[in-house]
Design a protein that fits this description.
With 302 residues, the protein is an alpha/beta fold. Helices cover 26% and strands 30% of the residues. The strands form 4 sheets. A 4-stranded mixed sheet has the order 3-4-5-6, with no helix packed on it. The protein is globular and about 55 Å long.
């Protein structure tokens, strides 16, 4: 009888220990499954040249620190860069940074004279590539260029004058569709180019004669689906129907309908990116609201 009581006690004790072990294991496994390993990668955009002398947007990995990231960008922009199929850097390989200083958002960067050791037809492209690549860092609001300590005020081969502080107002991949100097407006249009099954964004600064607001100019140009006499295409094609847009203060609302009636399939991210980027870079608008079938899809801000 005593032996049975002892065995029963051992049995119940063992069961309790087992149950506690199972509960403990479940809790541990649950906690482990909730642990997320995050890899932080800093990306920034640079602009490399294609075979048609267009500058295409490419993402690269940069450093945690801004001043350490700038040399990474400059090295990527050198002509010896062969990391992307069909694209190349534009800066001469012997380009070096003598000194750089960031003060109140203005980056003063002093290059050696090799920066401008380039063919006349690409001289302006060098500045475009530099300005747009470096201004993708939010800490940089403007750029002062020096050559061996002397401010660069005029490009030596093309005689193009440069502002003391360069911003994206300088333009990139410039296109001129003007017949008069009256009512000239400037917009940035985001197209894409396909190379080796990869698609790259291509910002184009276009000058047009128009009295329309810039949002309408952007939409009308991108609706054409392509930039004439080029291989650049627009994501705003026949599959995407923009029904209306409304400007209110510093915000624009874009209302879309899908090509299929009553379909709630969301707009492609490429459509959102190209339209938002075109509008935010061309205007003082702070927010772009995307609505599809009367539902807010997303809001893009500066």
């Amino acid at each position: 009888m005593l032996r049975q009581k002892i065995l029963r006690k051992i049995y119940f004790t063992t069961m309790i220990v087992f149950i506690l072990f199972v509960i403990s294991s479940f809790t541990i496994n649950k906690n482990i499954s909730n642990i997320k390993v995050e890899y932080q990668t800093n990306l920034s955009s640079v602009y490399l040249l294609d075979d048609n002398d267009y500058l295409l947007e490419v993402s690269i990995v940069v450093k945690d620190n801004l001043m350490d990231s700038i040399p990474v960008v400059i090295n990527t922009l050198k002509s010896g860069n062969k990391h992307y199929s069909g694209l190349r850097g534009i800066l001469p390989n012997n380009t070096n940074i003598n000194e750089m200083v960031l003060d109140n958002g203005i980056l003063t960067i002093n290059f050696n004279k090799e920066l401008l050791n380039i063919n006349e037809n690409l001289e302006e492209k060098v500045i475009e590539s530099l300005v747009f690549s470096l201004l993708n860092f939010k800490e940089i609001k403007g750029i002062k260029l020096l050559i061996d300590g002397v401010p660069l005020k005029t490009l030596p081969k093309t005689n193009i004058k440069l502002d003391d502080i360069l911003t994206k107002d300088f333009g990139i991949n410039k296109e001129y569709d003007i017949t008069t100097m009256n009512d000239v407006q400037k917009v940035v249009l985001y197209y894409y180019e396909e190379k080796d099954s990869n698609k790259y964004y291509v910002p184009v600064t276009k000058y047009v004669n128009s009295k329309d607001d810039k949002v309408k100019i952007i939409i009308d140009n991108l609706k054409n689906n392509y930039l004439s006499e080029t291989n650049l295409m627009s994501y705003l094609n026949e599959k995407v129907k923009l029904e209306n847009y409304e400007l209110k203060s510093n915000m624009v609302t874009l209302s879309f309908a899908n090509i299929l009636d009553f379909s709630f399939e969301p707009l492609e991210e490429e459509v959102i990116y190209t339209l938002a980027s075109s509008i935010l870079e061309s205007t003082n608008i702070e927010k772009v609201v995307f609505i599809q079938n009367n539902h807010i899809l997303t809001i893009k801000s500066r």
